[in-house]
């Protein structure tokens, strides 16, 4: 090699709250890890700079957890941080992109406050393992003046952001998957770029290699721990310095040569390493001995230790040559969210409720309510951390660790909601007088606009057939049962202040025939008369009409044959395709290789990077076995219409062997121009890897925008406002909904209330290309997916509710998009949960 080349070696521990060990055990381990960090700092503080121990705290959770349990060592920790031997970074944990922008921004606050209190620099946020991040992260980092984002993605079951088509980790060619890869497969090339958030916040991003590249190359221990990991598994790692040097003598020069050959233009490169070759690894000093021994040999490639911000300082110049992307960064690993469908619905409910509860808590000034709100946020962050279950879910389905770690993960979702309930209840009691003889339902203040309010009956027994709600304005409002099995109800209410709605018997209309129900004007201007309470009896019929919508059910496919706006006559449901509008579709992996056919092997074959052996193993196109089988529901019983004071509904039931049973209800609301699909589905356990979709083929769809985690973007576009090239183009995580553009400026808001994942273009999980595309009109909600080969439950059973709402948007004039109207429509059509009874 003609030019000197420096490897900056950064040691850290990848944070998984679970996966390798139960969360409690991981907590104990990190206490020992950081004791060892401080010991290594003390032992090497006078060593030469290039071989001095340095530690990058990959997440702020590591630091907070350690100092909460070792407060007596805080001064020592801070001193080494001031010397540059320890770097505190900003990211609290590694989150799925289900996390919303406010919680993500709030997750940075502990690190910001800690560093400000101690006068420490806070320059870097790190995201490792997962391969996509919420777009709002760039704005949040910029707002806190955190200039750097270090990303070390893991290409397992994912594509390479900004990389060549089909590129893989260099380490995969060395070990593990080498037999499956073609000799000429491209490898990941690290690079810098400026990532710009939806609000214009800018961070310098380094898109690095795998976070354990140093272990693969032999700079640190390369003994694998992919299998049995007891509490003391590290005691079996007895690799010596000679072992490291022997491995690195081959792989390290070869890696540098490959980077040079593939166009890497810099004379330095970041190599991240763990102390041991495993997630949640403790620090280890053997890499310091390796660096000293390697550099003593001489040669063009030299090594030095570093922290994350030291690496950025080494590359920060020449910003004019860096590309800039103002795009979202979809996560290929998001499909794991479909392995816990009920918990995802619960997480979205907690997200929707949090702003109103936080405002109530602030208004109350209650310390107890504030404490509950803070603990709810902490549990919510733990729930949305990217580790869901044990490493052994598919390799050892009967392992007790799977049940243990999944039960612990589920508790975080439940505790987040429970503590939010306590925050709301405590704050409500601090603000409102104790009831004397009547209990009132309190609704978040929201002006005079009518909203659909969801509530349960708490300790009361209410009858919508004989009772109504008396509002603070003296008007009465009907309510209607929302769930066929639970005491959950809906009412169309407005509340400008924090005042209660009290149940009372329905008043006699008297001889005038006037109802005590307030006439509510819809957006179409037609006041609605009062309606009788909902009847559980079904009227014959397959059509439904309201002031806003006309719906027609197809009793064979169990979807809609028509979804038409009443005023304009505009049709939104496309017919004649493979799936009807709103059809529930099951996808089972029937390939003999099972999950392998949907993961890395399937990707290698699809993108043309598979070896001849891998292609023969998989089976060639048109020759090998099919990967998937798709099935839909068949009708059970007759369809009919259910009438009510809040909504009317088309009701039908369906069943299939793989899908189980589902009750399908298409609703048209009276007080708001909303249509809604409600699926109450009893899921069966599947021994085959499976996914499920709800298909929505839109007629005349000419454009699509999704509100993702942190901003609205155009899927399939690589331009500003689109998605980062090379990121997942098959499915996306939706925050609240989508904007469907139709002909002539028409537009529609579509809201998947409970299931965050949505697939575009076709129902086909095995689509790996990331080229730009133009939307073809199909959206498919993906509420279920069990294709991960690790870390997620292999199937699920039980009752699941899926809801999808539709709200027509004002027609746009010209080519512009009324983004404000779209966001306002998402807010108006989203459920508003009552604060509680008092």
Report on this structure.
This protein has 838 residues and is an alpha+beta fold. The chain is 26% helix and 25% strand. The strands form nine sheets. It has a nine-stranded antiparallel beta sheet with strand order 25-26-27-28-37-34-33-30-31. Helix 1 crosses helix 2, helix 12 packs antiparallel against helix 13 and helix 13 runs antiparallel to helix 14. The N and C termini lie far apart (76 Å). The relative contact order is 0.12.
Please give the radius of gyration in angstroms. 28 Å
Give the overall shape, derived from the CA principal axes. Answer: globular
Report, as a whole number of angstroms, the end-to-end distance: 76 Å
**What is the mean pLDDT?**
92
Annotation field: number of helices: 17
Helix content: 25-40%
Beta-strand segment tally: 39
Strand content: 25-35%
Low-confidence runs of at least 5 consecutive residues: 509-535
Give the structural class: alpha+beta
| Strand order within the widest beta sheet | 25-26-27-28-37-34-33-30-31
Main β-sheet: number of strands, strand sense, barrel status?
9 strands, antiparallel
Based on the model shown, name its key terms.
26% helix, 838 residues, alpha+beta, 6-stranded antiparallel β-sheet, 17 helices, 9-stranded antiparallel β-sheet, 39 strands
